[in-house]
Amino acid sequence: MSDAAGDVRNAHHTVASLCADGFFDERAMRTAWHALQLRHPVLASGFDPHSGRWTIPERPEPTDLTITQPPARLSATAAGPGASVLADEAVPALLREAAARPFNLIDGPLARLLVVPLSGSRTLLQLTVEHLISDGWSLNVLMRDLAALYSAALKGEPPRLPPPADEAFPEFVRRQNIMLESGPGRAAVRALADLVSDTGPVPATPIAGFSGSRTIRYDRRDSIVRRLDAPLCQALTKRARAAGMSPPTLMHAALHDGLWRLSDAQRVATTLSTANRDAAGADSMVGWLSSKVVVTSEPGRATDLDDFLAAFHRRVLSAFDLARVPWPRLIAEMTPWALGRHTSEPYVTFNAQTVGMLRYLGPLQFENLTITTLPVSVGWHDASIATFWNEDSDGMRVTINWKTDWYQAPDMERLWTAIRDTLRRWAGTETG
């Protein structure tokens, strides 16, 4: 709301974009979409700015599919079979524009399903949800449920789905706030504040190239996408297991090493995104449950690699021990003036999604359709540098986003080179 008041149009949405090859049944998808909204009523919610509370209609009325015709001059390669749907720039441009269209935060609903029929055998699907009521885990839950509901509608059978979450996201937030105001909850907040007293809840980590500008806009950003191939990831998995940690933690440690090499600081600090799905039934809930923890390290003081990795792993585990305290609550405790505002601190964040997480939620399979996931995203992370590590069958896809008021593309290329070279060195390989 403050963005819109300041004429900053920066949609922060979670988006799943798919190319579906095969026979697409619009009627069955409409039935599935309606059922999905009834299964997850938070999608129909709005926000009361006066009370500061989410509102969900007692009997939400499902919205219809958004049917959009393709660009008139779409190339034959994009409309035909195969994975070349992005060969025509008109396709990602259409999807980005549709995903960025703002929601009515006050009245809702806060989700929509776009259908773009490219040809008789190829269809684009895009689920867009306001990030205020969703996160990466939630998006995977929604897509799993939509696929099951679509198959059920085609066959005229009941869907094969786990029971829905026992409570809606606003109720989860209410219970969480009650816990945080209790004696144990306030003690947990104070303990976490003590843990990050040296860095604060939003730890500044500027690196070489940082402009230091105090005039920054949240919507001025850029990104690069790089890959770690499968052989390198396999070698890194072996190295991580030898250190008693997960591969994403090893990659997070490499980010710290790269930041240290490109800065003058002895201590490096980043935020680490957490799923926050430990509560009973939370694995099927749709909402913004994910949070952040602050992780610090001192790469220059380690006696050797094993010493550094062991210390880094301890820091991550210590941070996770207090992860039940939401990051905004920590900000409110330590820097209340910063709550609800875009940060002016150049902090760096690490976000990982593993194949194991996707396997936990089940495969994404739409009946009679071959699905290709399309890399479409909109909006911007609040960090000065936001890194996203997405595992797939071919290795790891790494996206680095940055605020262009603070950094330029060569600065991020240097950071990526430092991270990649560190990972190669740790893996004992020069490929990847």
Short description:
The chain is α+β, with helices and mostly antiparallel strands. The chain contains 13 helices and 13 strands.
What does this structure look like?
The chain has 13 helices and 13 strands. With 432 residues, it is an alpha+beta fold. Strands 7-13-12-10-8-9 form a 6-stranded mixed β-sheet. A hairpin with a 2-residue loop joins β12 and β13. α6 crosses α7 and α8 packs across α9. The longest helix is centred in the middle third of the chain and has 20 residues.
What topology emerges from the helices and strands here?
Layout: H1 2-5, E1 13-22, H2 26-39, E2 46-48, E3 53-55, E4 66-67, H3 76-79, H4 90-100, E5 111-119, E6 122-130, H5 136-155, H6 169-181, H7 183-195, E7 221-229, H8 230-242, H9 247-261, E8 268-274, E9 291-297, H10 305-321, H11 327-334, E10 348-353, H12 355-361, E11 369-374, E12 385-392, E13 395-403, H13 409-427
Parallel strand pairs: 4-5, 8-10, 10-12
Antiparallel strand pairs: 1-6, 1-11, 2-3, 5-6, 7-13, 8-9, 12-13
| Principal-axes shape call | globular
The assembly state of the depicted protein chains is single chain
Helices and strands: which structural class? alpha+beta
Helix content: 25-40%
Mean pLDDT reading: 87
Number of strands: 13
What is the element string, with H for helices and E for strands?
HEHEEEHHEEHHHEHHEEHHEHEEEH
**Biggest sheet layout:** 6 strands, mixed
Task: Please list the strands of the largest sheet in the order they lie side by side.
Answer: 7-13-12-10-8-9
The Rg value, from CA coordinates, equals: 22 Å
The helix count comes to: 13
Percent range for β-strand residues: 15-25%
- How far apart the termini lie comes to 43 Å
